[in-house]
Structure formats: structure tokens, C-alpha cells
Amino acid sequence: MKTIIKPILRLTFLLLVVTPILAWFIVKPVRIIAPELVGLTCYDNQICIDIESEDFNLELAQQLRADAQQFLSEKVSSFTKTPKIIYCSTWQCAKKFGLGDRSAITLGTFGSAISPRAWQDYYIRHELIHQLQAQNMGIIKCLLSPTWLIEGMAYELSEDPRQPLKQPWENHRLKFRKWLNSSNLNKI
Ligand SMILES: [Zn+2]
After folding, report:
1. Were both Cys, which of 18, 68, 133, 185 would link to 124 (CB 3.0–4.6 Å)?
2. Å from CA of 66 to ligand 1 middle
């Protein structure tokens, strides 16, 4: 009995203690779950900002999310809870969430982190579409779905104005558009 319990305890310790700690340090987007722990300020309304920065604009942050939510509730789907957005106004802040070359990143329904160059309506809509995908399809289904579906949907339904997008994103968008047109879906 003793020999069985020990490995189980070790495995439990690994899963419950070691893995989350490693994930926190290695997989930076995991920090989206608790941005306060890396020095950001989060408000009750699920908006987090790097408040020490002189450039942050809380009013703009709130407006961008409100506009995106309105747009998406009319064209895609509504949120069951207020979507969290972490707005970085410095690259120092963006780095904390692993935003190297990426403009923004979303971690399931936990939230999105926005880099200084992504304070744009279509970027916010894009990331909130990823949150809606996680909300409506589930994280596992999202992870198992092809990139053209997940990213193509986000680029197409966010009405990203860039024509054409850099590859492979343009091809993903075109493939999704073709699929949507042939599938009689008005609302995803
Ligand atoms: Zn995306």
C-alpha cells in the first residue's frame, strides 16, 4: 500500500505545485490569469493596465473594449462574462506576457494581453473573438481545430482592414471566408 501511495503523492505534488510554478515562469501568457502578480493594476471591470506608465489611457482602453463588445454581440456572439483585457502601454509590460513579435495574445477565456501597437479597434475585436471561441467551443476544441479556422475566423470576423495580410494569415482568412460562404451560417 505504502509503495502505491508514494508515487501518487509525488505525482499529485508535481501536478498541483511544480507544474503551475514552471508554467508561470516559462509560459509567460499564463500570467494573464493573475497580472497583478507581475505588477499590473486590475480594476473591477476586468481591465488591467501598467499604471506606472505615463502613456496609459484608461478611458481609451474602456472605450475600445466597449466598442468591440458591441460590434461582436451584433455580428458574432455575446459574452457570458466581461472579457478581461490587459492593456500594455510599454514593451516592458508586453514582455511580461511573452509578447515578442506578437501584437497581442489570448489565453482561453482567462483574458487577452495587448501590446502598445495593438491599441486598435480591429486588434481588440480579433482577440475578443479568440475569447469567444474558447467560451463557445471550449478550449480543447479550439486547440484541436485547424489554424485556418481559428485565425481565419478572427481575421475575417474582426473586419481587419489590412489588405492583404502577411502570409500565412491572408490564406487562413480566405479559406475561412470560403468556408463561411459555403456553410449557410449567419452567426457563428
Ligand atoms: Zn489570432
Report:
1. 68
2. 19
Q: How far is the CA of 154 from the centre of ligand 1 (A)?
A: 6
Tell me how far the alpha carbon of residue 130 lies from the centroid of ligand 1, in angstroms: 7
What is the three-class DSSP state of 164?
coil
pTM score over 0.90: no
The protein residues having their C-beta less than 5 angstroms from ligand 1 (an ion) are 151, 154
Nearest CA among 75, 84, 73 for reference residue 108: 84
Q: What is the dihedral of CA 69, 187, 81, 29, to 10 degrees?
A: -80
The C-alpha cell of 88 is what? 500594455
Q: Which three cell numbers stand for residue 188?
A: 457563428
* 108-167 pLDDT tens trace: 999 999 999 999 999 999 999 999 999 999 999 999 999 999 999 999 999 999 999 999
